[in-house]
Each structure stands twice: as C-alpha cells, then as structure tokens.
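Supplementary notes for students who missed Thursday's class. We covered one full example, reproduced here. Read the sequence, then the structure, then the short commentary at the end.
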Amino acid sequence: MTVQSGSYRRNVGIILINNNERVFWAKRVGQDAWQFPQGGIDENESAEQAMYRELTEEIGLEAADVTLMGVTEGWLSYRIPKQYIRRGSQPLVIGQKQKWFLLKLVCSEQKIRLDLSSTPEFDSWCWVDYWYPPQEVIYFKRQIYTAALKELEQFCPDACRKPAAST
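Structure (token representation):
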C-alpha cells in the first residue's frame, strides 16, 4: 500500500465576540456540528483579506461591522482524520493551517445573515461563553480551538479569561 502525501490548506478562523464577552457559535447546514466561521485563503489573497471575505460570505458582516482585536502570531495547524479526507480532490488536503482572528462586533447583531451565499455554511447561531467551543467542536479541532482562544485571550476583556484554577 502506498501512502499518499498531501498538503495543509491555508485557512482563516474567525472568533467574533459581542459586548457581553460571548462568542459567535454557528451550526453547519443540515448537521449537528457547531463551529467558528472559517474558510480558505484564495491565491493572491492575504489572510486578513480572506478573513473579511469569509466574514461577509458566511455571516453577512462587513469590515465596518467589526473591530479587529487580535490575530494569532503564527499559523496553527491540525490534521484531518483519514475518514474525513476528501479523496480524489486535487491537491489532496490532509489538514489545515490557520491564522485566527479575534473580532469585536460593533454593529447590531441584527445584521448577522447566514443566507447571503448561494451555498450557506450555517443554518443557526448563538452566543456562547468564550471557553465553550473547545469542548463542543468536533474532536479533531479541539486542540486548535484551545490554542487560538488561549493566544487571543490577551486581547479580550477580563471576563473572557479562564479562571486561574482551570488554566
């Protein structure tokens, strides 16, 4: 048996926080799977440009609707379990390497729209505690969610920070 090599897709992750220090949590269309908005970086596109494009495509917000609070310094990566790899896709993607962005919502949450794309990613959303997502996201993303939240918490209000006993 030959082992196929693959690549890590460049991607951005978006953590959107509201005035109550809660984060945007969205349910994937037709699934019982919740996650942060994320998406690939197109050729000749910076990570920040991709983040703003994905923000609009996935949740209907524009750059003026948010304030950029922080971004991970380096790339965070995770490997996709074999059963989730899309065989036959070119190039073969075996994981993602991501830049994560922490954004503050500065407009009314009424502007959030999940139906602006011809192929929506999400069909429902809610606000959750800052540290809720790592325990609820699909298992193979838990480590990267924890790493992103931990690195970006320095830009958060004190209410987002983990209590000292649980770090």
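Commentary. Strands lie at 7-17, 22-28, 34-35, 38-40, 66-71, 76-79, 93-105, 122-129. The longest strand covers residues 93-105. If anything here is unclear, bring it to office hours.
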